[in-house]
Amino acid sequence: MANKKQLTTIGSTTEIDFVGYGFSDVPAKVDTGADRSSVWVSDLELEDEELSFSFFDEGHPLYSGKRVTIKEFEKTIIKSSTGHREQRFRAKFKIKINERTLTTYFTLSDRSKSTYPVLIGRKTIAGKFLVDVSKDEPEYSHAKSMNKLLTTNVTKNVDQPHLKVGILSRGPSNYSTKRLVYALQARGHEAIVVNHAECYVDIEQDNPDVRYRGEDISGLDAIIPRIGSGITRYGSAIVRQFEMMGVFTVAKSIAIERSRNKLRSLQLLSKSGVGIPKTIFSRETDAVDDLIEQIGAPMVIKVAQGTHGRGVVLADNEKSAKSVIQAFYVEKVSILLQEFIKEAAGEDIRAFVIGGKVVASMRRKSLGDDFRSNIHQGGTGSEVKLTAAERKTAIKAAKAMGLDVCGIDMVRSERGPLVLEANSSPGLQGIEQITEHDIATAIVQFIEDNVGKKRRKDTVGA
């Protein structure tokens, strides 16, 4: 039995490393009243006895968007103080606390409402650590700096009718969600955050309804969908129900779904005359050599449903391209083969389009030899002035996708701007911090200018 001399003393808060996952100095709350430890994860999915998720969520400084897949985990049922029961997952992780390494179980949960993304419970510290509550807590500077940033650059005091706006988001503490709440409140509107994953619809003739946590959601003038990639179909169905109720939406359900399908997006962009990299779509075929010949090496190979730079591989030569393609085929995954734009040099441009106008734009550059420029993958950003051709392309791409509010990603090539994708739920943190443009208020102003008006029909046709 361990004695106190063998125990490591820690405070009521500490910082931990997740060994093998690239996360260090993660702020953690130590709670001896809690039985088990928990860690904040997002976009959790269970498929074929494999559990996949991302650590933290959009807006948190440690969030990378990278997917983690594990095969060894436990299922458990958690009962809340209100009697609500839900299934949770537990998994073992190797962590380091105060230079002491151990392996312990963590419950995978949504800690977006908590100050600390990690909770350390008594089963983790028992026999290993001594908690000294008198020790000074390390400053969790992210929370302080985030609150300061969230409340800056908000345009206030306008003579507008009071609106009740629902923000469909699974992360109430995300930067984007909080910014939209502040912007709405600053302009005299009521903002409510609704976790669309917990909504359910009442489908009845001439009486559509959306219910949330046992109550119907009524009286909304507009919604701002922040639908994550892992819940596109369900989230879009909730948006569609609001549309049936006559509620104005910043992004239409059909536009959200088409934007998440890379093949569908590229087909529509191509049809509309928007410049795109040459692309081939494939699932399983014996003509792998012909696929490679049509694109040429090097080439970019993407999973058709990937996001944030996930599921994207650069094949430098024909041999490696063939190996990657065959590996995807084994997993029965639909893939896109795309020409590699060498002159882009690991850079792309994010143009933020609202109501047919580009309101801000930034250049994103990859770090090191990673060709992916996504900030979720560690890329860096800077404000950029678009050329007339780039601005025109971004607006044309948004229109082609039927998106009034979106992020258009494109690269500069020798033959002009080429669009990579349209994001129907673009994050605000990176582009607002980099460009210092108040995009949240611009979105609210778009709602003010259009709510109650007859909406033009979606004429994309796909």
Secondary structure: elements and pairs:
Layout: E1 8-10, E2 13-18, E3 23-30, E4 37-47, E5 50-55, E6 68-70, E7 74-79, E8 85-97, E9 100-109, E10 118-120, H1 122-125, E11 129-131, H2 141-150, E12 164-168, H3 175-186, E13 190-194, E14 199-202, E15 209-212, E16 215-216, E17 222-225, H4 232-244, E18 248-249, H5 253-260, H6 262-271, E19 279-282, H7 288-295, E20 299-303, E21 312-315, H8 318-330, E22 335-339, E23 347-354, E24 357-365, E25 380-383, H9 388-401, E26 405-413, E27 416-423, H10 429-435, H11 439-450
Parallel strand pairs: 1-11, 3-10, 4-9, 12-13, 12-17, 17-18
Antiparallel strand pairs: 2-3, 2-8, 4-5, 4-10, 5-6, 7-8, 8-9, 14-15, 15-16, 19-22, 20-21, 20-22, 23-24, 23-26, 24-25, 26-27
Give the beta-strand count.
Answer: 27
Number of helices: 11
The CATH architecture of the domain at 4-138 comes to Beta Barrel
Q: What is the CATH C-level name of the domain at 4-138?
A: Mainly Beta
Tell me what portion of residues adopts beta-strand conformation: 25-35%
CATH-derived topology of the domain at 4-138: Cathepsin D, subunit A, domain 1
Mean pLDDT, nearest integer? Answer: 84
Give the overall shape, derived from the CA principal axes. globular
Structural class: alpha+beta
Kindly report how far apart the N and C termini lie: 67 Å
Q: If strands are numbered along the chain, what order do they take across the biggest sheet?
A: 2-3-10-4-9-8
**Low-confidence sequence ranges:** 141-146
Radius of gyration: 24 Å
Helix content: 10-25%
| Biggest sheet character | 6 strands, mixed, barrel
The CATH homologous superfamily name of the domain at 4-138 equals Acid Proteases
